[in-house]
Amino acid sequence: MPPHSPIPDPAIPMEDGYLAHLRLEKRLSQETVSAYLSDLRLFFRQATPPPPKPAAMGLATLTLPNLRAFIRSLVELGFASASISRYLSALKSYTGYLADENLIAGDPIQGLQGPRQQRYKPQSLSRRDIEALYDSLDAAVLRRDAGARRDLCLVELLYGLGLRISEATGLKLDQINPPEGVVLVQGKGKKQRLVPLGGKVALSIRAYLESDWDAKGRTETLLLNRFGRSLSRMGAWKIVQRICARAEIRIAVSPHTFRHSFATHLIEAGADLRSVQEMLGHADISTTQIYTHLDQAYLREVHGSFHPRNRRVPGAAQLPKN
After folding, report:
1. Is 143 one of the annotated active-site residues of the chain?
2. Which residue among the candidates 45, 68, 188, 233 is catalytic per the annotation?
3. For residue 273, what is the enclosing H or E element?
4. Catalytic residue among 291, 298, 311, 312
5. 3 state SS for 115-136
6. Which among 42, 53, 279, 290 has most CB atoms closer than 10 A?
7. Residue 191: what pLDDT?
8. In this predicted model, what pLDDT tens digit does every residue of 258-268 receive, in sequence order?
9. Has 303 been annotated as catalytic?
10. Sign of the torsion formed by the C-alpha atoms of 123, 232, 221 and 131
11. Is 309 among the residues known to form the active site?
12. How many CA atoms lie within 13 A of 233 on its CB side?
């Protein structure tokens, strides 16, 4: 029996126009765009019967029965509610675009509901865990362990500033402004926001730049790997696993755990939710501009008052010249 040749991924109808819509109009990140396309290809693979059956192809497969069957199959395969909701988001985005462009008659996905999701409760580190982690990092710096100042700098960006892992690994030197006490962050959808830069965080960045940072002219990214190139997200994830194991933190920790901890500890100390959401860059508070409803002086005051890594420290207002 001859071996079966692999079935190629089905084409996504009107893919070029939809891609332009996602990138230029919605300004979604490449990761989100790739995820949407992957989800759509899975739908079209299931909705397009194999040959030799003559069947509906392309846009003709976008029917409510096909869409319901697809969601039902995901449930039967044991997909988590959050994953199914992501597929629904991709499909709704796609059919909405087609309907707006008059490429289909009506939107077939309107009214289609996914499974109910359980309310997500993010996990955060306790203050004792954070103190143990910083003690371990400081000890590594004193021992002059390879990459110790870089590792400390990574944690400062994730916990001290509340950055997403992609924001931390993509942060460039010209986005850091110690004299003004802010960092310009490029967030999701290329949206920008200003995050207050506290004294201890600024000193950690300065010490790293003075002692270990050497990109050899290849990049202006702050966080580097041992080859002097930009640190990848996977590289950052491995660092987080290593330093948390060394500090004997018992819970599972990801880079995003530090962002949750940043928000949790600010709110527990009395910071108002609106200010914290502004610093995190959540879409429902921060729109597309770097200057929003709350002025930056007030954000710096809130951040400096409540976050333990952001007291003003002498000598923290300048970075070394490269």
Report:
1. no
2. 188
3. helix 273-280
4. 291
5. CCCCCCCCCCCCHHHHHHHHHH
6. 279
7. 80
8. 988 888 888 77
9. no
10. positive
11. no
12. 10
